[in-house]
Amino acid sequence: MSFYPNIPAIRYEGAETNNPFAFRWYNPEEKIGGKTMREQLKFALAYWHTMCAEGSDMFGVGTMDKSYGGGDPMRQAKAKADAAFELMEKLSVDYFCFHDRDIAPEGRTLAESNERLDEIADYIGSLMQKSGKKLLWGTANCFNHPRYMHGAGTSPNADVFAFAAAQIKKAIEVTVKLGGSGYVYWGGREGYETLLNTDMGRELDNLAYLLQITSQYGRKIGFAGDYYIEPKPKEPTKHQYDFDAATVCGFLQKYGLAKDFRLNIEANHATLAGHTFQHELNVARVNGAFGSIDANQGDMLLGWDTDQFPTNIYDTTLCMLEVIRAGGFTNGGLNFDAKTRRASCTPEDIAHAFIAGMDAFAYGLRMAYRIIDDGRLDAFVADRYSSYESGIGKKITARSATIEELEAHALALGEIPTRTSGRQEYLENILNRIML
Ligand code: XLS
Ligand code: CA
Ligand code: CA
To answer: Taking each helix axis from N to C terminus, what angle separates 245-254 and 200-220, rounded to the nearest 10 degrees?
Structure first.
């Protein structure tokens, strides 16, 4: 039985094709930079958006049918898994990501939820074996249920903290069982609305403790992949603790978690933090914390998390440039944490959304290598800092310059000789010339 009879298997047909159900830029087996595009890009399907979200918003109910034939919730969960694997196969998407509650419905008790999760995880495990699809990362949904209304690890209620720890323990077990290469902590409601009722110091200490004990447990049961924190500045809470990449790196260092955690950078969250996607990736990289990516885009005219499929080829190009400079993905990949618009309500819309996102990133990968091969941008930056390669600059670079030496050097300089241009517009021209 097919859940997507109108979606054909999507193949690469090249830039000239007019077939709306074909890739123009994503050619999975083509080698670029010594690796296949499939290996370089590691696309993943986000179970919650693609398989679960029905298009509801604050003003209206769902517009899409994601009931997979309906009936008992466990039957539906299995049908949903069948549908997910059919879709991944047709789209040539090799990985997927899920929250515990996306794949199996929550039960009346934690024990019942765990049993359901085990049953569906085993079912998904058998589909993975048959298809060769892999789990990029798992996570726990510790933000949807009303028990988490004041946070999970940052809840003022210790019982809620314990419940969250137990839920995450189970989600890590399932991730390990399915061979996941990552585990994500997105701080759903880990933040606050008003300091009138909030002890921020205690909440941050507790959050760090939750990460410590759950991540250590994962190592104990054999999790060898990466833990990621996914920064986001706001929504649902006004002040999310994991505001942006820089904030999270500081947090990880303060609590001794930097060795074990990397970042999962989401494009739309960068926008909400007032940063570019590239900035967030760069911050992760220079802190040795680059890990994985939630690939989507926001709308620059809207102040919320629209989670749109990415189509902006400048952003995908500059993103892939950062990924290459970080040495490429190891355990991470490009997860389409994105959904079709509420008014795009057919399965075919989902296919077009994935094709658009995959082609935009494949194009970005091609352009990123073109930029590197061209060499002008790298040469410009190297030249801009060349004063650090000789004389006093070399001593600064070697951290051997004394303050007295620097003073003597400065006194001898008189006026600093030239105003040098940063040549931004010249460089923007180069970027366009390489890309167009
Ligand atoms: C929400 C987040 C979330 C995480 C996983 O804005 O993007 O979906 O990626 O919990
Ligand atoms: Ca995300
Ligand atoms: Ca988002």
So the answer is: 80
